[in-house]
Design a protein that fits this description.
The complex is a heterodimer of chains A (132) and B (181). Chain A has 132 residues and is α/β, with parallel strands linked by helices. Chain A is built from 3 helices and 6 strands. Chain A is 33% helix and 35% strand. Chain B has one domain: Lipid/polyisoprenoid-binding, YceI-like (Lipocalin, Beta Barrel), CATH 2.40.128. Chain B has 3 helices and 9 strands, in the order αββββαββββαβ. The radius of gyration of chain B is 19 Å and the shape is elongated. Classes of the chains: A alpha/beta (132), B alpha+beta (181). Chains A and B meet through strand 5 and strand 6 of A and strand 1, strand 2, strand 3 and helix 2 of B. Chain B: Pfam families: YceI.
Chain lengths: 132, 181
């Protein structure tokens, strides 16, 4: 006869399977990083980061790639989803840039460094947001 | 001395005289999906591309970490195991559009042939006879096209476990709206 014990074993197995399914699902469908809420690893000016990349691309890539960084500078170009600081740091936004933001204003931006564009000689950031 | 100055002037003049069109926000998408499995698809919206309209030379650069997937884990695996974007952060294309001339372009899309080298994951592959469609509208050159690449050509090894879920032929499409520099 099916004892209480074996019934309980089945129940434990079922709970275990359900739990691993939930954990597995959450692992496979985990959320993207949220750069906006991450704390910046580095805070520097557009000139400093650009100089570092120009001096030694490999070393700077090791240091900054995929890191959340804060850049301060002056806007030299604004488009729908991106802006450029001092002609040397390109920032892409996930949402459209507030169009009241004007060229020549000083801003601080947080984003993820994706590398150095040697065609235009610009450092590129994505998933940017304004700080302050 | 006068001659040298004259020569320098000529050289600098010829450099500035080159007409270049460029974009910082070109699009490159790739897809390696297999039917009935989760889509393997990424898009990149900040690809840089420059064309020299005097001779049809085209250069494009995509920072590999800028490829965004819907699935975060897939994006992580792509960067860490396949593209190895910490070691190879750039994907580049350098090529030339045959018989290109700015005067030929108009609002209608026209087909051109482009030949060049595609570098990804530290490997360079010759990409020949790719058809691109080019049009010009309000002084913006619009270039678009697609090609197929395989992971093995770029030394990317797809593990057996997931081989059935990732297509071996990867469809790559691109679109650039270039404005005058």
């Amino acid at each position: 006869m099916a004892s209480k014990k074996s019934k309980r074993n089945w129940l434990i197995l079922l709970i275990f399977l359900a739990l691993s399914a939930i954990i597995g699902y959450q692992y496979i469908y985990q959320d993207h990083r949220n750069i906006e809420t991450e704390k910046a690893e580095f805070a520097l000016t557009s000139q400093t980061i650009s100089d570092e990349f120009k001096l030694d691309v490999l070393k700077s890539e090791k240091k900054y790639l995929n890191q959340t960084i804060e850049i301060s500078g002056t806007i030299t170009e604004v488009n729908k989803n991106d802006l450029t600081l001092n002609d040397i740091v390109f920032c892409q936004f996930n949402t459209s840039v507030n169009q009241s933001i004007k060229v020549n204003s000083a801003v601080k931006i947080k984003g993820r460094c994706i590398g150095y564009d040697d065609l235009l000689e610009q450092v590129k950031l994505d998933q940017c947001t304004f700080i302050k | 001395m006068k001659n040298i100055i004259y020569l320098l002037f000529l050289i600098s003049f010829s450099i500035t005289a080159q007409t270049k069109y460029f974009t910082k926000t070109g699009t490159v998408n790739f897809e390696a999906s297999v039917p009935s499995f989760e889509e393997v698809r990424a898009s990149h919206n900040v690809v840089t591309a420059i064309i020299n309209t005097d001779n049809g030379e085209l250069a494009a650069l995509a920072l590999v970490k800028g490829f965004r997937f819907k699935n975060a884990l897939m994006e992580e695996h792509f960067n860490e195991n396949y593209a190895e974007s910490d070691t190879y952060p750039k994907a580049t294309f350098r090529g030339k559009i045959s018989n290109f001339s700015l005067d030929k372009l108009n609002k209608e899309k026209q087909k051109f042939i482009i030949n060049g080298q595609l570098t990804f994951h530290g490997k360079t592959k010759q990409l020949d006879n790719t058809t691109v469609e080019i049009a010009i509208n309000d002084d913006i050159i619009i270039i678009s096209g697609s090609f197929t690449a395989s992971a093995s050509e770029f030394d990317i090894d797809i593990p057996k476990v997931v081989r059935s879920k990732i297509a071996s032929n990867i469809d790559v499409s691109f679109s650039f709206n270039l404005k005058k520099k």
